[in-house]
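Suppose you are handed a protein chain with no further information: no name, no annotation, nothing but its sequence. What can you learn? This example shows the usual starting point.
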Amino acid sequence: MENHNAVRWGVLGVAKIATAKVIPAIQEASHCEVVAIASRDRSRAVEAAGRLHIPRAYASYEALLADPDLDVVYIPLPNHLHVPWTVKAAEAGKHVLCEKPIALNAAEARTLLEVRDRTGVRIQEAFMVRTHPQWRRAQALVGRGELGEVRAMTGFFSYDNEDATNVRNVAEFGGGALLDIGCYLVNTARFIFGCEPTRVAGSVAMDPRFGVDRLTSMLLDFDGRHAIGTCSTQLQYWQRIQITGTRGRLEIEIPFNAPIDRPCRIVLDRTGDLSDRGLETIALDTCNQFTTQAEEFSTALLANRPQSPPLEDAVANMACIDAISRSSRTGRWESV
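A reasonable first move is to predict its three-dimensional structure. Written in structure tokens, the prediction is:
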């Protein structure tokens, strides 16, 4: 890393999230270069490389990992491939930014701790929302006591996808609402409360055609403070977060798919007036959270600073998700 000022990125796969969102965002980030992309279909790799002005296209993931000029590999593959290819990338000496969820369960995620320590590379889960100014402002407002004592957080995240061929509807690929978008509700609740829940409860409605959860609700108990969330892959597209304390309420209007072409807004309510008079709106500067994610990953490497959050945070998030799934089967509170 000391021989150049830019971190060189390679991308495993031509998933839409990579080609439409993440790669262009990395290309806008400081100290970042996307220099290679791979697909098991050579023509798709070549097409994506040409369209996105990426110098090298590989016809296999293995070939990309063998490239000595790469520092970081971004992995946007289907969920069941996250751990196997993270391990292969790490053992090839590449740092890894892997899409969420980093694994199918906590046991899988824990195996990556040993891989990280053995290989000496950085491995991080790609929860880009943690780098967005709106979430950091929300965390700061809560931390300063602007809402009084925060005792409740509610969240909702949904979209509509009933395509049987989509990986999010394939059980063996790690499909379903909880792993795809419920993980955001868990992650941001842990972020705002700043600790791990002591117990969780979950309820799941399965799609009989696909064998994946199409509607999941959760209750996370942070020692007497509650985070409640619902996620669905078969409802109208919608998302919202409410954080409520003893002296105020905070609403994040577009918490997860933050727009890149206009400011995001946080709304503060310190009046309790149900007619919405007296609301205070905080507009955050326009930004691309995928760009800030890449910048923070790369600058931490260049400065030899620890990644934030560390891999242990990803393991903890998966442990919460596992407990929600267990509770949906047992009908009881489950410890994390």
